[in-house]
Amino acid sequence: MNRTLRPLLVLPALALAGAAALMWALAAGELPVSLADALAAAFGGGEGMKAQIVRELRLPRAVATFVCGGLLALAGALMQVLLRNPLADPYILGISGGAAVGALGAITAGAAAWVIDTAAFGGALAAMLLVFGLAHGDGSWTQTRLLLTGVIVAAGCGAATTLMLALAPDVRVQSMLFWLMGDASGAARPWPALVVLAAGLALLLPFARDLNVLARGELTARALGVRVAGLRRALYLLASLLTAAAVTLVGSVGFVGLIVPHLVRLALGNDQRLLLPAATLAGGILLTVADTAARTVIAPQQLPVGVLTALIGVPVFLFLLARHPR
Description:
It is a single chain. By secondary structure, the chain is mainly alpha-helical. The chain has helices at residues 6-27, 35-42, 49-82, 95-108, 113-134, 143-167, 170-181, 191-204, 208-214, 218-223, 228-250, 256-268, 272-296, 305-323.
């Protein structure tokens, strides 16, 4: 296929697939709704219980999962370029652990939903600031220092999470475990995260050419005039904020930011001008489909969406390792 025509075909195809995934999420459930009624309810039309369920429950949840998948995939694509490792994960800097500590602390205290969201975002930002502060070293961040510091902070957050689970009342444990495994059932306010996703993508696309150069190596990027230190610092910060927004919205969902950018890269190449928007759409599609399946497979019971993404991600990850043994 002509390389100039590929973006014109791939991105619209992913957009259509994303629309189809959202429509399935609106129509599917214990109470099925026709596609026409679901579409009418989503745009404010229709009356009755079905329209109310679509507008108040399914639409916010579908948007939340799509946005969360897009945030994680976009953050994963950035981390894989910045760390020059195609198997890097957006949770690698301990951000998910910080969000978990904040959210589980609020859940243990019996706080309201908006307080839990605020505590999760605050914990993610605190972990990010801690990692960057400790990794600063002699005045500059390096890949090795960031990775090691992120691993240590994540281990500390994991220990704090285990302690809270052990001390929490029995009535709180189930909701805490669901949050840790990824739970979109309480995501009633996805619109701020949607703004974060749109703004992040809009900020990144003008620097896609610089990312293409940076992917070839730091020395090459410097020789071609890219301000590597400032670019990497800004992109690390942006990737951390994207991950924090995703974790706050749906909880800890693994493998989306790991496998989606890598699979998109295998299919489309490493041109960031195409990879970034394509990975965002593909991540949203994957998580929306996984969440719809999670709430319909054994309805009326619901599975944590993180369980299904792990069931998908583990074999894909092993396949990628077997395909690239080095």
